[in-house]
Design brief:
2 copies of one chain form a homodimer. The longest helix of chain A has 27 residues. Helix content of chain A is about 35%, strand content about 15%. By secondary structure, chain A is of the alpha/beta class. Chains A and B meet through helix 7, helix 8, helix 14, helix 15 and helix 21 of A and helix 7, helix 8, helix 14, helix 15 and helix 21 of B. Chains A, B: Keywords: Lyase, Thiamine pyrophosphate. Chains A, B: This is Probable phosphoketolase. Chains A, B: It comes from Pseudolysinimonas yzui.
Chain lengths: ~800, ~800
């Protein structure tokens, strides 16, 4: 339990004194950001008007973050390390901003924040100030890939950054508050998925600050033995640094870091020499007081070392002379006169105490992944065409076709592309990728194991949180990825999606942040095909969640078959700075479009399927729209029924791939003009719309359109259980019979003539449902349904459909 | 690492033979459910038509679940334990169904499923069959509180069930797949929140089945030492049972269980004698083959003990003679002729091997909480009235007023009510509850700790997942609770909400499931008041997520002030079988309604605020609607501006508390008729609607209304950062100036006369924004704004507003 057993020689005390000065400077600058509007160097007495009117920010964790930063800098310089710093307790935003300013990066990035008194004044003023920078670590913070708002993702982000970056060190501070979250607790297991020979190193630093907002933390209040068991159980060798005396803590932390980096060197050396045993990676436990070096007591109450130090230790510095005196005393305790010269710049011994250029953690290009990203080497997706001689006759598993494309994307990009899935890669029919790589796995293997290897590039753990965090870290450091997931369970990462989308939105307004690869989701095993799993696995609402975010970062695609899926996936994999959501089935299903047709259809995002329509280019009686594979199938089957029963009916079939096309141009860049929309959907004819998800979304996207009152949407109504695929449609009235009945009910001129057809359809519904309940499967005529060209009046058009 | 050191004497072998017979019977019935349509007792040769056409269900985990069930029954009988069984691997749904049938509960619950051959045939047929029961553990499963679809919540549900049930044992099986999830990983820490003297006992059983869908599990592939460290690190004393030989495994598991229950007895005894040291609760690690006792090899490939046993071990039993022969051999290997009598009932030695009555885990009333629930002893919420002499003049922190009510709900229900929060109880201003109880905490305490005690009833851990799981478990076992959370981070449990709402929806159709208390969310620290935390903490979309679920289980309230919040909270706390979402601010804010007015307003759910309107009961020029505290404030301020500038303008102010009132009656039971809606909102006048969340939701709820085309919604547009409260409104165009300008732009008769007013308002916006950016705070005239009655033409109406 003590690093001392293998401790290297003590670090030179003079050097540690300089580190202490740097730390004091960073702490001074942190407190200044929280409290000061002006008088940054305290060269005048501190007056009320120097204090911010609203005191925002989190002091409690900041001195610890700064302490670690200072020591990492020593190691980086001594060992020429390539290091980024992931700060789980990102509420301590003033810390990395202070460090970046001391390292010069801040001024390089934001030239108006100069390294002098005026720059320091601006640095302080802008923090948590309207028009300034956020209070947490954020995209605005140089050197960060990790927003400090929602807790839980420090380790998974860190591992994502480390994959395929063999020489990178990712120092990851885990706050003891964050450590209580589920996503963080799960992500400790990430070390079973690291290949020491080909991946970088994550150095976890568990910061036992002791308190959350108002409570002690669990890990700070279990016995040292229990904690040591836990961390060894996570597969680490922990080293402990505990105390509050800076001098001792500097010595101890420096030695602990040296020990860790020595061990890491040894692990990497062994791995490169072929040692395949999973290493027990070193980590550090830093136990230091919350709000360390801050005011000990305020208003008679202990602050340092308690939850009272979590945010601002006292809030009346502007109004209350005593508080203001405490603030001044606190700031002066860092001895700013020793740290900053007459101009307000850091004195040389402080200013020089950091690595140079891109070795500075605040300037490491890995933390601005768009600087490093390379285009994927993409095969021509047209080569993966699923042959379609005629629409709606042959079947294929669409995602299986995609798997072959992904296999070749993988083999062309074996150092910058990975696929991610919560134990569903093969279930989702993407197993072709295992032809060229394995699943990442550095835990024990036994005979009979299937495609497990430390160098595997298929990332599977049964934690959507860990998967999402890994992928985000991988993308933010300039690589590419693809996440396949059961549709219902992607909600597990709703809040992580939120944070990533917000990161992208903010980054779009930051010129120095370069665009990164899009986060690509394939949602499959979707709501309509949960034959095995039933109601708990049915939820198509992630789309609804996604479209609440800024339209310039979200895209939603519902390709109805394999070739459209391939075209969409190619587009998404090449794109930047989006979250792309693709929803597609994995079950054998009818194929409709040739590759040439698919490309044209996907390029326009939606369009009339003339081969399925019976309006012959005239004004239709009804528009039957569809989005999603199952709704498309049922729509075509309904058309087929109606065509046979009511040959004069003029039906226009519109298929939608790119859902955002339905919105108007003001709401989304992909949106159609009203003229385009009206030309497709008419302004006065009924539109029976079969949609993959909750019907309200289609209304939400189209409520401004002239013909919106004529739109009747069928979709998931939260009805379901373990039953047959067709019965699922019936339960939710998305099936061909309900759709056809709806058409009859909506087309005025049919009302008097089609009573018997309506009756037949209703009887068919009853007959099918009875058969399903009796036989446990769908009638052969449903299961075997194909699009019958013979019924058509006109031949297939020579031109591809538009 | 071995329980043997303290092992009690071996269990009688004859008894274990009977347990083995019971286990074989449960396994036989499980396989039958997955595969058989008919010929349940194999009294004829197995023919294709006896096999289900679609083979659904998960065999892999089922024999382990049955094994544990059999052994728990022995302990329950020997020790007269009150026990429920939480099966994390709930995909193994056939297991508990088989057990319930053997125990007689199934027939008591579903009388058509008799304990004979015909009943067995029906039992088999209904499983995963259209019109039958789901493939997973579900509300339909007697004895369950835990849906087996989405993994991760076994332990948190178990602890929720154990709180305040001092004599209850909750045996909780954690699958090694589930153990990889974030929520499960976090929930191990729950043992720091259990009071051994007053709470029940959770006995975790980690089932190392070895495989997930397609991969080995992490915990099965770390070294035994690492696993032992991990479990001790979680605060447990683990006992290990490992092997595949049933005879040995029966002996070992029986002894391990005896050891655990002896230790639990000792822990409870010590605790009741005042020992306050946190116990290291025993737990069991069961390492057994996946698909244990199933076919070893199929088609030349190993099945038992591999991922191939996860679902159905082979799928062609109907079509393929060889597979069918394997099935028959497998079923016969359980020797059904020894287990079931001529009639098909279990033979006495099997039939009697279970506890009686409500001691049967399948019939324990704790697993049907509505049987046990008692109404809360509720104080009269009117007593907590915040005095309001005149609307919009005095301020209060609304949630602080609620805290006082919750305090007294707590003190009246000290064994059946708890409040839950992820470390935000005090931040959310509910600290009054700490006057009568403490925070639950059984880890180390030190001087200066604030309200921590093992018997505390304020449940705080920094894991929304654990909080939600505890609360669900607490409610499902018949108690009451209240969850307060930062609004943005409730998305962390989106998927858990989904599953709970689905449980309620399904339970509503199951007569024997009695209604339980509603799950009450207070979402505060909401999007408009993230002054500290900025963009990452801004997301009002949980409401959008919630309304996708069945309307008969979801309710959404946006009380604008303290008295409306109290009225709404009283209603929610008394309700059953809903998820209630209350969104309310915690910051000081203007108060509008007296308690009497608030009750009337909340009872109707929405209504005209006549005191704020200027239409004097006539046809208005414009309706200004508002929902949420900040939108209400800005709407009233806009009315005030417009009233001064355009005294002839007839404004009707409509405030919405119960959001579901906006829907039509077909869509939600609270929905208004079109006539009611039209009478409030008109069919032809512009409606400027200030809404708390994403504007699209209001369109979604109202798109069918006649006047929908006139509705102009202001809400959160995903714009924000760390800035002032008013600036947040301006960024999203929800502020008084934007609202007033929108009124001017929408009311036709103002277009020609109000150019100067519009100009003034635009200039005011510029002036305010400049002030904010210069001074870091809002102009005093914004911060200090109150509703000025003096401007009104008419006195406050004598009658309360409707």
């Amino acid at each position: 339990m003590n690093y001392a057993t293998s401790a290297p020689a003590a670090v030179d005390q003079d050097y540690l004194d300089r580190i202490d000065a740097w730390w004091r400077a960073a702490n001074y600058l942190s407190v200044g950001q929280i409290y000061l509007l002006d008088n940054p160097l305290l060269r005048e007495p501190l007056l009320p008007e120097h204090i911010k009117p609203r005191l925002l920010g989190h002091w409690g964790t900041t001195p610890g973050l700064n302490f670690i930063y200072a020591h990492l800098n020593r190691a980086i310089m001594e060992r020429d390390l390539d290091t980024i710093y992931v700060m789980g307790p990102g509420h301590g935003g003033p810390g990395p901003v202070a460090a970046a300013w001391l390292e010069g990066t801040y001024t390089e990035t934001y030239p108006d924040i100069t390294q002098d008194a005026e720059g320091m004044r601006r640095l302080f003023r802008q923090f948590s100030f309207p028009g300034g920078i956020p209070s947490h670590v954020a995209p605005e913070t140089p050197g960060s890939i990790h927003e400090g708002g929602e807790l839980g993702y420090a380790l998974s982000h860190a591992y994502g950054a480390a994959f395929d970056n063999p020489d990178l060190i990712v120092a990851a501070v885990v706050g003891d508050g964050e450590a209580e979250t589920g996503p963080l607790a799960a992500s400790w297991q990430s070390n079973k998925f690291v290949n020491p020979a080909r991946d970088g190193t994550v150095l976890p630093i568990l910061h036992l600050n002791g308190y959350k907002i108002a409570n002690p933390t669990v890990l700070a209040r279990i016995s040292p033995e229990e904690l040591d068991h836990l961390l060894r159980g996570f597969g680490h060798t922990p080293f402990y640094v505990e105390g509050d005396d800076p001098e001792q803590m500097h010595q101890d932390f420096a030695r602990a870091l040296d020990t860790c980096f020595d061990e890491i060197d040894e692990i990497k050396r062994r791995a490169r020499n072929g040692d395949t045993e999973r290493p027990r990676w070193p980590m550090i436990v830093l136990r230091s007081p919350k709000g360390w070096t801050g005011p000990k007591v305020v208003d008679g109450k202990q602050v340092e070392g308690t939850w009272r130090a979590h945010q601002v230790p006292f809030s009346q510095a502007r109004e209350n002379d005593e508080h203001r005196a405490i603030l001044e005393q606190w700031l002066r305790s860092y001895r700013p006169e020793e740290l900053f010269d007459d101009a307000g710049a850091p004195v040389p011994s402080v200013a020089e105490l950091h690595p140079s250029g891109s070795r500075r953690m605040s300037a490491n290009p890995h933390a601005n992944g768009g600087l490093l990203i390379k285009d994927l080497v993409m095969p021509d997706f047209r080569r993966y065409e699923v042959p379609v001689a005629s629409p709606g006759v042959s079947t294929a598993e669409s995602t299986r076709a995609l798997g072959v494309l992904l296999r070749d994307v993988m083999s062309g990009n074996m150092d910058s592309f990975r696929v991610f899935s919560p134990d569903e890669n093969n279930s989702n029919r993407l197993d072709a990728v295992l032809d060229v790589t394995n699943r990442a796995w550095n835990a024990t293997t036994i005979d009979g194991d299937d495609h497990l290897a430390p160098e595997g590039r298929v990332m599977e753990i049964l934690s959507e949180h860990t998967i999402q965090g890994w992928l985000e870290g991988y993308l933010l450091t300039g690589r590419h990825g693809f996440f396949s997931c059961y549709e219902a369970f992607i909600h597990i990462v709703d809040s992580m999606f939120n944070q990533h989308a917000k990161w992208l939105t903010t980054a779009n307004d930051i010129p120095w942040r370069r665009p990164i690869a899009s986060l690509n989701y394939l949602l499959t095993s979707h709501v309509w095909r949960q034959d095995h799993n039933g109601f708990s696995h049915q939820d198509p609402g992630f789309i609804d969640h996604v479209v609440n975010k800024k339209s310039d970062v979200v895209r939603v695609y519902l390709p109805p078959d394999a070739n459209t899926l391939l075209s969409v996936a190619d587009h998404c994999l090449r794109s930047r700075q989006y979250v792309n959501v693709i929803v597609a089935g994995k079950q054998p299903e009818l194929q409709f479009l040739t590759m040439e047709q698919a490309i044209e259809h996907c390029t326009s995002g939606l369009g009339v399927w003339e081969w399925a329509s019976t309006d012959a280019g005239e004004e239709p009686d009804v528009v039957m729209a569809c989005a999603g594979d199952v709704p498309t199938l049922e729509t075509l089957a309904a058309v087929s029924i109606l065509r046979a029963a009511l040959p004069d009916l003029r039906i226009r079939v519109v298929n939608v791939v790119d859902l955002m096309r339905l919105q108007d141009r003001r709401a989304h860049p992909h949106g159609m003009s009203d003229d385009e929309f009206d030309a497709l959907f008419t302004t006065d004819k009924p539109v029976v719309f079969a949609y993959h998800g909750y019907p309200s979304l289609i209304h939400r996207l189209t409520y401004r359109r002239a013909g919106h009152g004529n739109l009747h949407v069928h979709g998931y109504r939260e009805e379901g259980t373990t039953t047959t695929p067709f019965d699922m449609c019936v339960l939710n009235e998305l099936d061909r019979f309900h759709l056809a009945i709806d058409v009859i009910d909506r087309v005025p001129r049919l009302r008097d003539v089609s009573g018997h057809v309506r009756q037949d359809l209703t009887e068919a519904l009853v007959r099918h449902s009875a058969y399903i309940r009796e036989n446990g499967q769908d009638l052969p005529e449903i299961r075997g349904w194909t699009w019958d060209e013979g019924d058509r009046e006109r031949p297939l058009p020579a031109d591809p459909p538009t």
